[in-house]
UniProtKB/TrEMBL annotation:
Domain of life: Bacteria
Source organism (scientific name): Shimia sagamensis
Keyword terms: Oxidoreductase
InterPro entries: KR_dom, NAD(P)-bd_dom_sf, SDR_fam
Domain Ketoreductase as annotated: residue spans: 12-202
Family: Belongs to the short-chain dehydrogenases/reductases (SDR) family.
Protein name per UniProt: NAD(P)-dependent dehydrogenase, short-chain alcohol dehydrogenase family
Lineage of origin: Bacteria, Pseudomonadati, Pseudomonadota, Alphaproteobacteria, Rhodobacterales
Pfam families, per the entry: adh_short_C2
Listed SMART domains: PKS_KR (SM00822)
Gene3D superfamilies reported for this sequence: NAD(P)-binding Rossmann-like Domain (3.40.50.720)
Amino acid sequence: MTGTIFPDLKGKSVYITGGASGIGAALTDGFMAQGAKVAIIGRSAADDFIAEMEIKHGATPLFMQGDISDIPRLRETIQQAVGQHGGLDVLVNNAANDQRHALDEVDEEFYDWMQAVNQKAYFFACQEAARQMAGGGSIINYSSISYIMGNAGYPIYTSANAAITGMTRSLARELGPKGIRVNALAPGWVLTQKQLDMWADPEGLAAHLERQCLKEHLTPEDMIDPTLYLASNASRMMTGQCMAVDGGVVVSG
């Protein structure tokens, strides 16, 4: 858990997609530790997580069940968060699906579903958030180093993450005059429970760790401080950037 304090995040209204599991759950915990008012959308019920946050922070996140690919429901939950929390200061587009697939296996239905979850929902969440951020704000779009590395095994996912970075740069230009900052955060291989259950094997983990400069595997908690930084005034003149947090696998510049 983070020990860094960002005083300006206290009382801020934060909306996180996928905020009850994996990286998103760590982010919800991190923002609540700062005293932020957190709203989250998730596909599955999250009673145990909500109870855990209540015990830990003496407050509960606003949990709204829904699928981010259902754009009307996505809009509705953002508007509900605004109504309950008195505005919107921070959007974190975190939810994604990195289901593995080979080029020859993909049909149109699967392609459309992958893009709906991994890119389309990000766009429309940004659109609705920008409409609600009357006094400016910060949008943080989770991308991935997978497209920078040119990884095989999930070409629709890597395409979507490249698009997220491009969208981030364009929206930073478009929304800057309104005082809205837009940045992307590209994690490395973060070992969520899903990753450990589905994709992580000893050989793959060892090979990836060899690529890292820092010889420790990433955990969801490693994403908290970088996200808080992008949300806070500590990064007030930073926008249109893609920040890799990966233990030193990829480089830019």
